[in-house]
Each structure stands twice: as C-alpha cells, then as structure tokens.
Design goal:
Largest sheet: 8 strands, parallel, barrel
Number of helices: 9
Structural class: alpha/beta
Strand content: 5-15%
Length: 274
C-alpha cells in the first residue's frame, strides 16, 4: 500500500502565480494539488500546470466543476467535451461535481455513465463529489444512486449533506455507511448544521463538529486500508469567501484558509500515517 497522499486545493489561491503556488505546496508537505480545469482553461495553461508540478515532484487531481447548463442535452455535450479536453493528462484521478439536482435520475445516470465510459477508455478513475446543486446534493438522494449503480464511486464531502439536512445525519446511518463504502477520494472540510464550513476547526467551540467528521473519516480510511487501496487521497478543502466568513464591512476573513488547510493536513497525517 502506497499510503495516503494529501492534496492542496488550488481553489482560493488562483491569483498566486502557479509556480509560486507550487513552491508553497511543496514546502508545506503536500503530495500534490487538486486543481479545477474550467471550460476556459487553455491547453497551454494545462501543459504549464503539469510541467511545473512534475519538476517539483508533485502530482495533480483534476476537478470538474463548471458544467452548469440547465438544458440536459447541452449539459451532456459540455460534460463530454470536458472529458475529451483532459483525456491525455496524467492525473491521479478526477473529482467531478456531476449533474444537477433537478435533473431526473435517468439524466444524471447518463452523465455518470459517460464518466464511467471515460474511465474504461482512459484508465483514469472518476469520483463524483457529494455537493449541493449536483445529483449528489443530499444523503438520501445519493443513496438511491449508489444502490442503483453498483460501480458508482464518490468523493465524500459530507459537509454538504450536513448543511442540506440541517443535522449531523444520525437519522440516516444507512446512507452514510453506503457512502463510506464507495468513497474513493475525501474532501476534509468540516461542516455544521447551518453551513458547509465551520469558521475555524482549530478552536474549541467547533471541536464537536470536528470530532463527528473525524469518526466518519476514520471509517473511510479503515475501508481503504482493508482494501489495500493504492491511491488513498485526501484534500483538506476549507475554502475562501463565501465559504470563509468575512467580518462585516471589512472583507477581512476571520481565519487564514492556507493555515487551516495545512492544520487539517497535519492533523490527518498524524492520525493516519502513524
């Protein structure tokens, strides 16, 4: 088993030049970067990303996030085009925010099947992120997809489900257990019942929320280890505004995104690599 690889989110640091960003990522101890590839990202930009990362011994997870057309046929075509765009890039895996919450089961399944076909043809695994506004926006809804599509695997960002349900999901244990069994990538962000991101997981008032997430993440890692997974991956994914609360009238974030994510990486590294 290769162990757990930690990825730094590019999200929130887009204005930092890519090479400067990678220097910070490497010095902080991450193994790679999770980077969104948008419709407008050019091939030249992508070539630069991979070349600079390879020089520094870093690897990349590609994130899909911006296919948003409400008309299904246009959405499907845009999603297919996106996969063609990234086909030749040597990523560790793809994290996809897939579909729309208002598409039918059959429509979202067609998008999932498209991603499955891409994996079969390219060998690059795709994991579908549990995310608000996507097919996987709630625990009970995602449970139906997981039950109906045996090869469906997910990126577990359970903070979204907590926010949608306004609970810590104690009344949905079967949905959570099934999701944990199907998790191929983990977003380590701590949510709470009124939002997808606590202001700061390092402080005492959010310890209970952190502990709840740690118990879930322990189970995910336990499943990975039992299966001897070769590519266990975690992205600490605390985000910038509006996920990060700002002080009213000043636009000053109440905590430092970079430091919070590094804290999460070090916390989980100590917990799971030991």
């Amino acid at each position: 088993m290769a162990g757990i690889l930690f990825f730094c989110p590019r999200w929130g640091a887009e204005e930092v030049p890519w090479t400067d960003f990678l220097v910070g990522v490497k010095s902080a101890g991450y193994n790679g970067v999770e980077v969104g590839i948008a419709k407008g990202t050019t091939i030249q930009e992508m070539d630069t990303m991979w070349e600079a990362a390879e020089k520094r011994g870093l690897v990349l997870i590609i994130q899909h996030y911006d296919t948003s057309a409400a008309e299904f046929s246009k959405h499907y075509d845009a999603y297919a085009d996106w996969f063609e765009k990234i086909r030749d890039y040597p990523a560790v895996k793809v994290n996809s925010q897939t579909g729309r919450d208002f598409f039918t089961y059959e429509q979202n399944k067609a998008l999932i099947d498209l991603a499955t076909g891409f994996t079969a043809a390219s060998g690059l695994p795709v994991f579908h992120e549990t995310h608000r506004s996507k097919f996987s926006f709630a625990a009970h809804v995602t449970q139906a997809y997981l039950a109906g599509i045996p090869d469906l695997r997910i990126t577990l960002d359970i903070s979204h489900w907590i926010c949608v349900a306004e609970t810590y999901l104690a009344d949905q244990p079967d949905a959570v257990t099934l999701a944990i069994q199907r998790t191929g990538h983990l977003h380590a962000r701590v949510g709470y019942t009124q939002g997808p991101q606590v202001p700061d997981p390092r402080v005492a008032e959010w310890r209970d929320a952190l502990d709840i997430h740690l118990r879930w993440w322990d189970q995910v890692v336990g499943v990975w280890k039992a299966r001897n997974e070769a590519r266990m991956t975690i992205t600490p994914e605390f985000g910038p505004s509006p996920y990060m609360v700002h002080l009213p009238g000043t636009l000053t974030p109440i905590s430092d995104q970079w430091e919070v994510n590094r804290y999460m990486m070090e916390l989980l590294g100590d917990r799971y690599r030991g």
